[in-house]
Every structure is written in structure tokens, then in C-alpha cells.
Give the backbone structure.
Amino acid sequence: MKIVGLIGSLRAGSLTRQIMETLPELAPDGMEITMAQIDHLPFYNEDLKADGTPEDPRRLADAIAAADGLIVGSPEYNRSTPAVIKNAIDWVSKEPDRPLSGKPTLIATQSPGALGGILSNYHLRQVLSVTGAELITGPEIAIIRSGEKVETGKIVDADTRDFLAGQLERLAEAIRRKG
């Protein structure tokens, strides 16, 4: 089971990156999670597609199309989703083969504050819902006080690790149901 992860923060030591990079060790047996690079994508511009989709956005779309599922990890910037993650979704959603359509998708947000990036989480749900992505619903992954739960680049909080492992299993179940 191949999963692509998108990280909505560009900073190497960001809490979102650390959380997302913990996921592979929490994944159920048979699930392989690979993080896609999105920091080099140009801003979405239909003019750039005059001779076809540029190579970097097409490579991202191909990776998502070939994956069984998607995980979108994001911080919350100004009560919304960072531009880098929205830009990646915009590129992929405009491809004629619609790689996001029907793709089991898990959203994970975080914040050092008390709301866990929940507004970013909801904005991502709005955006991804029109792409045809199959959103994993139920208890949202909105990690509160994330700075207290990460050490040396990984999530160390046992309850958070258990919760994330359970959410990854829910993603795996959705993929299995699709066949």
C-alpha cells in the first residue's frame, strides 16, 4: 500500500514536517509512506500549461495517481492553509486524469496552540472536496500543543502516537474497501 504525503510547511525543522516524518514508523504493516517535494512547484498559472503541464507538477500528479492514498499535513497560517499546499493541490487537481478523484485522503494539521490547526483542517476539507478526493472523516487529526509532543524530530507523546496509528489504520481500511 503506497501513500504519498504532502507537507505544507517548507521549514526543515517545522512541527508539521516532524509529525509527518513520524508517520512511517506508525503505519500499519504493508503501508509505505513517502513524502513528496512541493517546495519547487511554480505558482499555478494556466499559461504555464500552454505546451502541457510542466515537469515538476506532472511528476507530483503522477506520484499521487500511482499511490493508493494521500496524507496532507499542514500547519495553520493566519487561520488558513499555507499557500504551498494549496498550490500543490491546485496543480494536481487541474490534470486531465484527475489523480485526486477517488483517492483516499487523510488530513493532519497541527498547531502549538490549543486548536491544533483546525481551521486549516477545515479549509483543506473544503478544497479537497471539490477535487473528488475521498476524505477520511471522523475524528479530525488536529494536534494541539504540538511543540510539547515532538522531540528530536519525532512525536514522542504516546497518546498522539496511538491516535495517529489508529488514523493510519482507518486510511488503510478505506484503501482496502476500494479494492
Residues 158-178 form the longest helix (21 residues). The mean pLDDT is 97.
